[in-house]
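Entry:
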Amino acid sequence: MVNVSLLKVDGHSMHPAIKSGVFVLVWRWQMGQYQQRLQVGDIIAVEHGHYGKIIKRICEVDLDSNGRVRELRLRGDNELASISEAKIGWVSVESVIGRVVYVVKARS
């Protein structure tokens, strides 16, 4: 089953791609269903053990011997406003909520 969630962005770590206060549509999936499609450059939502729900860009992918994604390295687009890649650490694929597929732009 595939479904979509609407999450509000709070923070400037993904600026300019995603601005604080906007909403993003996150394509959710059950564990393992689409993990092989995760790749460097994707923006994903993750339930991080220390930081809670975060939205970051994948910058590195660790694969198992069968080519399935095991772990991910994440970073924000705005390094000055983001938690560092080192502090986030490797994130297990099990903590991925889903891929950001659309940014709902604020009305001007």
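The chain has one helix and seven strands.
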